[in-house]
Amino acid sequence: MKKKTLFFLIISVLIFTSGLIAQEHHASNLSLLPWPKKVIPGNGQHILTENFSLRISGNFDKRIYRAATSFLNRLDQRTGLLLTNKDISSQTNKTSEGQKMEIRIERPGKTVLFEDESYSLQVKNEKIILSSVTDLGAMHGLESLLQLLQSDEQHYFFPQLTIEDSPRFAWRGLMIDVARHYLPLSVLKRNIDAMATVKLNVFHWHLSDDQGFRVEIKSYPELHKKASDGLFYTQDEIREIVRYASDRGIRVVPEIDVPGHATAILTAYPELASKDTTYTLERNKGIFHATLDPTKEATYTFMESVISELAVLFPDAYFHIGGDENEGKHWDESSRIRKFKKEHQIKDNHQLQTYFNIRLQKILKANQKRMMGWDEILEPGLPKDIVIHSWRGKEAMIKAAKQGYKSVLSKGYYIDLLFDTKTHYENDPISDSDGLNPEEVKNILGGEATMWGELVDANNVDSRIWPRTAAIAERFWSASSVNDFDFLVKRLNAISVQLEASGLDHIKSRDRILRGLFHTNDIEAFRTLSEICRPITARERVGKPYKTYYPLTLFVDACTPDNPLTMHFNKLVRVYLTKQDQDIESEIKSYLLNWKKNHDRLLQKHRSPTLTALLPLSEAIAELSGLLLQKIETKKKFDKVEQERINVLLDRLDTPVLNVRSAITADLKLLSENINTP
């Protein structure tokens, strides 16, 4: 009897386990990003027709109406069903029976830190039910539902399933620097739309730096007259962006970077400077010494006016003061400041900056704002309600958390550095090795991707932010156990296309740049080369000629850190090296043949200095692709002469040309090594 019971128990476990495996396999076919906390796949489909309709019930305001209308419009655009029932009904509408979807909301959400963003989504064959505490959760659920859209030969449909979801971190941000290069409102809006798609909820707006002050301050009008090159946001435009973001559940946190990074401020008001000299807007990149004078009362009068005007425009509780990279050179050179330090028993520049920050904190508190700053501001004497923005390393975040400060991590999420997606994705904000206890973990609010503006403008900024930031968004929303990179790539490619459909330029900007650069509509050969090149990292570009007015429409600006084609080729090579699959081999050979032929196509093009510079790289890719193709087909090894030639070609591929290098060098090297492996 015991043996029978054990037998049936084993069978039950096997059936249950196989069911879980089947569910996981089913779920893995979904393009959800970020991945939800819990996904329970079903077996059916909710088939869409032109009669699809939607009802909202519960306690809500107009924001969810606008979000639901946007959902229906985008659904219509992606299916062409020509939905006939776009008028959304509510619980007060007595004719609401028969709706295919219902959104149930308990209350309107506030666009504030720690608001409830959870939701549950049930997709059944006959009806879809989206439930949430707040409309913020409902808006996240709508984005997830739109990502679920699938089709077969006959229908568009949503797969039957249940989702229970909520974010891992409350602060999931994207910082965009508009000081180095001004970005039009339309660019900001489409990036805010993209943020909403992947459930980011903080737009950190870096408004001032050495190269520009981009916001109208009516009490100090010389700021936008002298320190912006005429490119700034009026106060009405600021309100417009804040409203636009709030309508999508996104907070807007402004940053005015002080006391360093102040060249633009001092161009307009040099009397606030630590050093008596002439200031003009910086056209270079780097760390400069222009610094506000923390010993002058006029400095605090200025900051009080700036903060009080911006406090009205930005309703969020947090105000970012920057506070980074102040080396104190002009403070050390000033006899007046040295005297002040001595009189006030301030022993060094760190304490002097803390004195400045404490003064600012009082101004912020008077305007009902809490201070946020880069991790340099973490010094004794500041209240525990400030937020430390860690950029130099996790150590500052951990130190702040242990001291009772809230913190946000950006180290590892500097997308301006042009690292690949995998580097960012594998950087988890918290790990067991950080040594934080449960209470200290609560002090980690989340993280921000940072798009510094030295090498971006309206032409290329989308391709520098997306789709890599979608991968970072998953790190902020999903559990740390969601970390399979191949699974991410599969979903990332699908979401990238959806992001373009929502208005982003990150895909089509490449072709526009190539057409303009090579003066032709026939750009197929140039596109092929750009797909297998990647920009060198921003750190590698240190010391190279740079001015803020240099064009950002060059070949490097048409290349991305992670082209979907090269990511796919990388996976093909990895799989091929583990199993010599014929289908995979055929696909690899197809790529190699195309790259071999592409050089001849480029040789037929009208010559230009850009093309002339790129031809040696193209030639090396073509020759190496040809050698590999020949050996794969003949199944022969390289002889000594051929191997030496391959090494020369690999070195050439890894040598930067026009700030790009081959993105397939490592994969071609692996193939060559595999061919010569017994």
Automatic annotation (TrEMBL):
Keywords: Glycosidase, Hydrolase, Signal. Residues 31-165 form the Beta-hexosaminidase bacterial type N-terminal domain. SUPFAM superfamilies: (Trans)glycosidases (SSF51445), beta-N-acetylhexosaminidase-like domain (SSF55545). GO terms for cellular component: lysosome; membrane. InterPro entries: Beta_hexosaminidase_sua/sub (IPR025705), GH (IPR017853), Glyco_hydro_20_cat (IPR015883), Hex-like_dom2 (IPR029018), HEX_bac_N (IPR015882). Residues 1-27 form the signal peptide. The active site is at residue 325. One of its GO terms (molecular function) is beta-N-acetylhexosaminidase activity. Residues 169-479 form the Glycoside hydrolase family 20 catalytic domain. GO terms for biological process: carbohydrate metabolic process; ganglioside catabolic process; glycosaminoglycan metabolic process. It comes from the Bacteria. Gene3D superfamilies: Chitobiase/beta-hexosaminidase domain 2-like, Glycosidases. Belongs to the glycosyl hydrolase 20 family. This is Family 20 glycosylhydrolase.
